[in-house]
Amino acid sequence: MTRHSAETADQLTWFLKADANVTPTHPTVLDPSPVAAPRLAHVSVKSGGVPLTISTAEIDWWETEGNYMRLHTAGASYLIRATAANLEQQLDPTQFLRIHRRFIVNVNRIVEVLPSFAGDGIVILRNGTRLRLSRTHRDGLLHRLDPKPLLTSVAAGSR
Q: How far is CA 124 from the centre of its chain?
C-alpha cells in the first residue's frame, strides 16, 4: 500500500467513525438496507392520438426497435420510447424475463421451449408466437420454468 492510499484509508476510517453516532435522515449509499424498486404496473401509450393505459399483465412480450420498445398484447402492438435495459429494470422480474437481446417475455404466456441450433431455442407463446431464445439467456429461462422437462429438450438440441 502506498503512503497516499494509506492516508486516504485513514481519512475514510476517521470519517466513518465520526459519522457513526449520527442517525441519517435519508438512505445513503452505505446504507445496506434493501429498498424495493417500484415495479411498472401500467404503461401509457397512444393509439391514433388517443392515450391508453395498458396493464403489464396484458402484455405478451416486448421487442426492441432501436431506442424504442414495442409491446405486444393480444390484439395490438404499441411503440414506446424506452430502452430494453431501462425497461427490464422497471418490470416485475417474477412476471417478465429477458430471453434474447431483442425480447422480454411474459413468462405466464410461455407454453413450450424448443431446442434450436448451437444452444439457442424457440419460445412458443399461448397465441402461437415464436420468439428466439438466445443461449446467453437460456439458463435463466430454464431456472424460472419447470426445469425437468425443458432441460432435456433444450440441452439435447445443443449437442
A: 19
